[in-house]
Write a structure and sequence with these properties.
The protein is α+β, with helices and mostly antiparallel strands. It is 15% helix and 29% strand. Strands 1-5-8-7 form a four-stranded antiparallel beta sheet, covered by helices on one side. It has a four-stranded mixed beta sheet with strand order 2-10-9-6, with no helix packed on it.
Length: 194
């Protein structure tokens, strides 16, 4: 994860340098960022996670609260975006940032922009992606910058998940269980994990 964040920060730094160099050499610009020119430039996706053609992508992650969720995807934009054109708090409501499996089936999920409105995160609603499966992520031309300029062309990237799914650790091994007598209809003794 640290390596991916480093690549993302490097991509943002390069985009900022290119933008600064352009503004510094363009007649009529006093240097620095010119918001009116930025508003006229079509946004672009400058970084994705997972990267294009990545293999061995985990099907799910286990966060610090021991909650397993499907691996989330991110798309980093070259400039702040209009979150109302990308955010999708209900699965399947907004089709600006989508994910499909190798068979072309849509993966249900939600999309949210970060506080800078430059990173969109697609979080699948399922607890895990399918193992050993190819996926294609797409950011469509419905995505628009804060200035209202839409992306010039859609961006797609693909990746392949690991052969073996990621499993949540057994909470009973950590001592969070109670022993029950006859916990199932077959009257077998066992443990109830909390």
């Amino acid at each position: 994860m640290r390596h991916g964040r480093r690549q993302q920060n490097e991509a943002i730094r390069r985009a900022s340098e290119i933008t600064h160099a352009y503004h510094s050499t363009t007649p009529g610009c006093a240097g620095g960022l010119n918001s009116s020119l930025m508003a006229q430039t079509a946004p672009a996706v400058i970084f994705t996670n997972p990267s294009n053609d990545a293999t061995g992508v985990p099907t799910s992650i286990n966060n610090s609260k021991n909650i397993v969720t499907a691996t989330a995807l991110t798309a980093t934009f070259s400039q702040p975006m209009n979150p109302s054109m990308i955010d999708s708090l209900q699965a399947g409501q907004q089709l600006t940032f989508t994910l499909t499996d190798a068979s072309g089936n849509n993966v249900r999920g939600t999309v949210a922009m970060d506080v800078t409105n430059t990173v969109a995160t697609f979080t699948p609603t399922a607890p895990a992606l399918n193992p050993n499966t190819g996926y294609v992520a797409t950011v469509t031309t419905k995505a628009a910058s804060a200035g209202g300029i839409r992306m010039a062309r859609p961006v797609t990237w693909s990746f392949m998940t690991k052969n073996v799914p990621f499993y949540r650790p057994d909470p009973c091994k950590s001592g969070n269980c109670r022993y029950l007598r006859y916990p199932d209809k077959n009257r077998n003794n066992g443990r109830l994990c909390l």
